[in-house]
Design a protein that fits this description.
By secondary structure, the chain is of the alpha/beta class. The chain has seven helices and nine strands. Strand 2 and strand 3 form a beta hairpin.
């Protein structure tokens, strides 16, 4: 994979989704948890910022802290529901983005690839898809995805229903499944205190 991205970086907005309740983490704000004395989201910001035109954070709490960690980028609370799942944060950020494509990642994936955007975009274009979702060879990671901003009206219509399953909305569109099976650890997410303790060793 070349060091210099060949995708149109200026057409991509990056979004870090940090708006959940993190119930499996005991309610802790996962993006602000420390890994080797650095917040999880700091690892993601460092990796994602060079890959995108601008970087947003979707967060429903500790917004001032997130703003400190993402200077020059906006921090947005859900405007569609409250703690209503990743689709609510995605809708808010799709609405605010000004680029053609929006790259979403969760706040608990500190080992993302520096070529994440390149791979997702390449497959989206090659397959003439509406969105590109990362897979590790065994399962998909639906919140690590590149979406066309033009999907916003479809998402808003979906959010008018009681359904909040991201897979159900994705199924309405042409999906490119982008293979990261050669670097599956880059998709690793930290859901529980045990996960964090294991990775910190």
């Amino acid at each position: 994979m070349p060091n210099t991205p060949t995708y149109p970086q200026t057409k991509l907005t990056g979004v870090i989704l940090a708006g959940g309740r993190a119930t499996r983490m005991g309610g802790e704000d996962k993006g602000l948890l420390l890994l080797n004395n650095k917040c999880l989201i700091e690892y993601i910001i460092a990796t994602l910022r060079p890959q995108v035109h601008n970087l947003l954070i979707s967060a429903n709490r500790h917004q001032s802290r997130y703003a400190e960690l993402n200077p020059g980028g906006r921090v947005l609370a859900d405007t569609f529901g409250h703690y209503d799942g990743p689709l609510a944060g995605m809708a808010t950020c799709l609405q605010e983005a000004t680029t053609d494509y929006v790259l979403f990642v969760p706040c608990d994936t500190p080992f993302l690839s520096p070529h994440l955007a390149h791979r997702l975009y390449t497959q989206l274009i090659a397959q003439q898809a509406d969105l590109s979702v990362a897979t590790d060879g065994h399962r998909s990671h639906p919140v690590i995805a590149l979406l066309k901003r033009s999907l916003l009206p479809s998402l808003l219509k979906f959010l008018d229903t009681p359904d909040r399953k991201i897979s159900h909305w994705y199924a309405q569109h042409h999906i490119a499944h982008t293979d990261f099976s050669d670097i599956p650890d880059t998709l690793l997410n930290i859901n529980t205190p045990q996960d964090l303790a294991t990775i910190s060793k």
